[in-house]
Design brief:
Two copies of one chain form a homodimer. Chain A is α+β, with helices and mostly antiparallel strands and 327 residues long. Chain A has seven helices and 20 strands. Chains A, B: This is 2-keto-4-pentenoate hydratase.
Chain lengths: 327, 327
């Protein structure tokens, strides 16, 4: 199934079911008012939503309308929890080198994760206001999951069962704040403005074989101002999503609607390019001896779209955003 | 004004207005369904709520009922944002010594803050399930504020204007996870289970002169298993709440309902005692040469109540909780 959220004046927006080919949508508020209520009541709602999805795909819904991603909010416009891993160790190791921070202890064996702002998730085509070009404005292309309720001290099986939906994320970052905030040990506040989401959240079956080992076996194709930036593959994630969820739930239960991110998708092969500017910069420093690429300027745009290995478009739709000056 | 939240099967609970003496309450859902909607629509709702509060205090509300804190949820049972400062530098310096962590850079001049779980705030008398006594179970007595909307890059004045309500918090902590999580630089996940709140959230005027310089000029009286533990005073906070809010909003707006904590209340004078066990332990190590106090066991209880300088009870009611084994 595929879901999106349209504005209706409420904090959670209104639920629509989107057709498999992303061309049509239908209001689903008779089944659940919003996506948060879907993941809260998955067992109760899933069959009705599946029936509506099947009818929509069969062209049998009179009330269907053209799906326009530019009208979408984030699938969850707000949540009570956003936890972002750094599960591509290749990226983490490069970032340590980029920012000259101390090696993270147990980085290969215990997931690293920060808790971020979840009050203001941005939609796929929202302009992104930032206070200053001097802050090191960067994108981070990621995959993520939305969970149902997960019990405290969940096993890996319970964590896997907690995965309701898959999403695609741009975790906006301000690099000039990162090293100082990491040095506090308290994590990121100013370095991490609100994250953005592709328009469509999907059930894992929509990925077919590409949902494997608790990982997105998809490329994340990224262009910056229309130029190719990278297409790293999700399969190289060093921790699976169930492992990230179990880490998060070690000492507290997760209420439904928890969003857990992979961290920047990153591959060992230089051919894959990168999913964030900071990583490209450190690769330039290592490979070329000097940093050539600067961070984003106001007016710059970034586009992110998942792709299957055979080149088909991924199921999430496209993130396409412009950075603007905060008024 | 004083507010509390009672359960009604929804994520946000239902709003009640509580009398100044905390003996009576009245349903306020005809004005606003829950406290989150109050802070979202403060200008629109405040006058009606004040009128109801005045009538309740005058004994003129037929529908008033006895206020029972044991039935209360946290004032906000969930929120989209919980940011906890470490604004009592005395505490921070002692904790560095306790856990042998590196000095935090710019600790005296830039607030330190972590983002915590806000999906499952606990009520004032809820039993608190924890996975293991070996995790270093600790309480942290704190003061906090709930904001309305705060713009990105808010000035100190705008930050001060964003303060809607004052609250009292127990920021549960698991000390065995803290040093490793700090060493990642990514902040606390496993070290910080869901926080608990005193039953009543109040407008700043309820503190009278004790709300001064953006600080709670109140003692926070803490007992552990019925024995006095400390009564540190909020006036020694090194950063004010407007400073914490402006720090949080530096690169992102805060939507209404953001909860910002002071960090553990802590005083330079040893006579004040402490608001968490970890701080007492390091003081024992410094002053006595050995740690005598162990962390909490299942069945242990902690009680926290604010007090005015003249000995009157603070306005928030009492946090009184027992730690139990997670089933």
């Amino acid at each position: 199934m595929k879901f999106a959220t349209l504005p209706n004046g409420t904090l959670d927006g209104r639920l629509v079911v989107v057709s498999k080919d992303l061309t049509k949508a239908v209001d689903a508020t008779v089944i659940a008012p919003n996506l948060l209520s879907v993941v809260q009541n998955w067992q109760e709602k899933a069959a009705d939503l599946q029936a509506l999805y099947d009818l929509l795909n069969a062209g049998k819904v009179d009330a269907a309308f053209d799906f326009d991603p530019s009208t979408c909010l984030a699938p969850l416009p707000r949540s009570s929890q956003w936890l972002d891993g750094s599960a591509f160790i290749n990226h983490g190791k490069l970032m340590e080198e980029a920012f000259n921070t101390k090696p993270i202890p147990d980085f290969d064996t215990i997931p690293v994760m920060y808790q971020g702002a979840s009050d203001d998730f941005q939609g796929p085509t929202a302009d992104i206001p930032m206070p200053s070009e001097a802050d090191g404005i960067d994108f981070e292309g990621e995959f993520g999951v939305i969970t149902g309720p997960v019990p405290m001290a969940a096993t890996l099986d319970e964590a896997a069962q907690g995965i309701c939906l898959l999403v695609q994320i741009n975790d906006w970052s301000l690099r000039s704040f990162g090293p100082r905030e990491m040095a506090t040990g308290f994590g990121f506040i100013q370095a991490k403005p609100s994250s953005s989401f592709a328009p469509v959240a999907v059930t894992p079956d929509e990925l077919g074989d590409a949902w494997k080992n608790g990982r997105f076996n998809l490329h994340l194709n990224i262009t910056w101002n229309g130029e190719r930036f990278g297409e790293p593959h999700g399969s190289e994630m060093n921790f699976s999503f169930p492992e990230l969820i179990a880490h998060a739930a070690r000492t507290r239960k997760l209420n439904a609607g928890c969003v857990i991110g992979s961290g920047t998708v990153s591959n060992k092969s230089r051919d894959a390019g990168s999913a964030c500017i900071a990583e490209r910069r450190v690769i330039e420093k290592i490979d070329l001896g000097e940093i050539k690429t600067q961070y984003m300027r106001f007016g710059d745009s970034v586009r992110m779209q998942a792709k299957f290995d055979d080149g088909r478009d991924g199921p999430f739709g496209v993130i396409e955003q412009k950075v603007i000056a905060n008024k």
